[in-house]
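It is worth pausing here to work through a concrete case rather than discussing structure prediction in the abstract. The textbook approach is simple: state the sequence, then state the predicted structure, then interpret. We follow exactly that order.
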Amino acid sequence: MKIDLPNSFEDLTIKDMVTLHTSPSDKVCLMNLCGINREDLLKLPKRLLDEAYEHLNELRSQESGQHLTRLKLDGKTYGFVNDWEAFSFGEYIDMTAYAQDVYGNATKMMALLYRPIVIDRGDTYTIEPYTSKENHKIFELAPATLFGGAMLFFWTSKRTLLSSLRVSLSQTITQASLGLSGDGIQLSTPLPMRTS
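Step two, the predicted structure:
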């Protein structure tokens, strides 16, 4: 009997990646990834199992990402969230909740970040609004590298937005403490003070 494992991380689907990271043991992971039942697994030579377990660890260490703004799944074109300023409070709350268990919620995160394109204008597109009822199961068969790319892009964008917000707030506080308006001009009305 032989064990058929994906050759590299790039050969994994998101469902495979979730199995790789959430299985309680390498034995369970191997059974789920290869479709082998427990009885057949116990008949395999120890040397072969050791090699398979080592390969599972190699797959985990090879995790990589590829960011695509558009992808086609099951005949439908999906677009990545392209306007972070339009990211709703509901989207942010759901994404934060899903991030508590990244691999357990991988397909839900993908359904939040990739939604069907409703208007396609070549370089730009408009996606369906988020409803929290998107079919996340469709992303199980998407390449695992797309998940890594989407997460990297999302967290990098989030960090950039938070950093620019922090700088903007710091500048506003500094200007207020110096008594300057937003343009660096002395305020035309005096600061509140006691008048008699």
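Step three, interpretation. The first helix runs from residue 14 to 22. The two ends are 96 Å apart (CA to CA).
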